[in-house]
User: Fold this.
Amino acid sequence: MTTELPTLTVTPPALPGTKTQDAAWLRSARQARWLSYVSLVWMLAEGVLGIIAGAQAHSIAVISWAIGSAVEAAAAVIVIVRFTGANRFSETAERRAQKWVAGSFFVLVPYILYESVSKLLSGGQPERNWLAVALLASSVVLMPLLGWAKHRLGRRLESDATAGEGTQNLLCAAQGTVGLVGLLAGSAGLGFLDPVAALVIAGTAAKEGVQLWRGEDCACHAMPGLQPAGADRADAHCECC
Assistant:
């Protein structure tokens, strides 16, 4: 008669500065990385076509929106790097990524302000251009889907960098809405709505960037849908507002 000895499983200790993650976390990290790849490809195409369409429409709003795509592409690259290789398990990689994404907000805000102030001073009306209309409409439809998906992943991963990139997607949709209204309403003499709404978006983007840089968790935001990664947790609060 033989007696089987119990099997002892030994888990190797984590390297200094790293942490272990379960299979669900790793799966969410892969999803976040691939969503950022999708964003990167889309933003590059959106930027090139947007500049062409904006020039044809004589619309600084569309051109500035297209240039802002470069900033969003940079945020996508940051998140891709955050969830690639050893960075997935680094205890400091998330905070670094948060600050880099926050910095991209601070680059985005001047573009929006420039667009708003220029249009308020010039009072010019853009020409209707169907390529610009199609690009802006696609942004209004697709960017919220990407943004909300990244916010959900940000909560699962406890990654404000991922949620911050999602917020930029939502701001892209908001800018697209503003640009679309400006193009369609310009011929009716309502083009002034474009720069006024853009100023509100600029203020919101600046606030998001400051909170992300500080690492603040805040459940109250000026625009619906811009909740940070931990906004649905029980300890979420509004002290930062």
In short: Residues 125 and 186 are 5 Å apart (CA to CA).
